[in-house]
Write a structure and sequence with these properties.
With 377 residues, the protein is an alpha/beta fold. It folds into three domains: 102 residues, no CATH class; 88 residues, Rossmann fold (3-Layer(aba) Sandwich), CATH 3.40.50; 147 residues, no CATH class. Helices cover 45% and strands 13% of the residues. The chain contains 17 helices and ten strands.
Length: 377
Amino acid sequence: MLRELFKKQIVITDITQEGIQFVTRLALRISELKKGAISEVLADTKEYQFSDSDKIFFMPGCTVPRFKVKQLCEATGMSVVKNPDNATVIIKGDNTEKEIIQEEYISRYITVEECLEWIEKNYSVGNIGTLSIKQELSKDDTFDLVVLYGFNVYRTMTTGARDENYSWVKQTINCPINSIYVWVSEDKKLRDFDKILEKMKPIVYQNNLLAIINSSNVMTEEMYHEAAKMFESDDSNNHVLAMELMANCDYQKSAIYLLLLLKNYSSKIKNRKEKDHVNFRSLCSFFNISADDFITLDEIIEICTRINAIGTEELSLLMKIVKEDMSDSLSSTFFRVKDIEPNDNLTEAIERANRIRQANLASQTAAPVTEKTETNE
């Protein structure tokens, strides 16, 4: 299990004549766990059908707006749990691996043996201020390298007294500045991860849950033009309303219109602090872009084909948009774009999206998530 690989690492934060201050964390040498390993084992449960009795556990790195989840739970009977043991389904996000383990560069460190030796030579045996760190350093599950956090800690141990405040230092240690990469993490994150693998809970990508949350809000052409008018307004409040409208749509089914708004009004969006709100960040995360990005029409098509958002139903809309864009870019007094057609790559992407949609329809034989209705008794 992953937790068993990690050991407790000591990070010295302050050294004084009275004792040593430190914190602990979990660490693992970078070579002992390959990058991407966590994402590899967190394989999606294909065609998972949510039910109104589901108990949801969110892994770290999920960006699903919690207020939307609360609304879904109130409408369906679903619930959110804090312990994966109690969950029926696990939700993972784009940043789940990065939140569970982080890669860190360490340039100032010494070995456990060197640290114990330095303490022995500079403090009395019964010094109360070093008892805790000596106990931790002597444990079998302690990482073999001790981090010297901050230049003052490094200076005290390696160069000793530079003024009277450091005159108590009797002996320094030779500690050249080295470099090493380690994975760092927290106990709860690792134990939750191990529980999920052990219990073999179904794991679902957060976008599948978002599709249910926003399923009733599909952006139409009329809504698109309304949002465009809001962005073109001089009133910044209208810009915020347009962003809220975008964030509350079904991202998959509204992909073309949403990406067009992100393309055409990026200058308005990137200047709004609301772009960092969790619901708008969730929208951008779905498309794997930043609110500050400038995207082209080709990039919109690439994104839509990647998420299978362009099928036969969307082709006519896409052709209309592309034709208008090409006519505008032609800038000719004598020519206009009469017709266009999709190339082989786009045709294949459309056929793939059609197959996926047909398969999804066929798999919806299980009871779908339904909203609770009030009844009079």
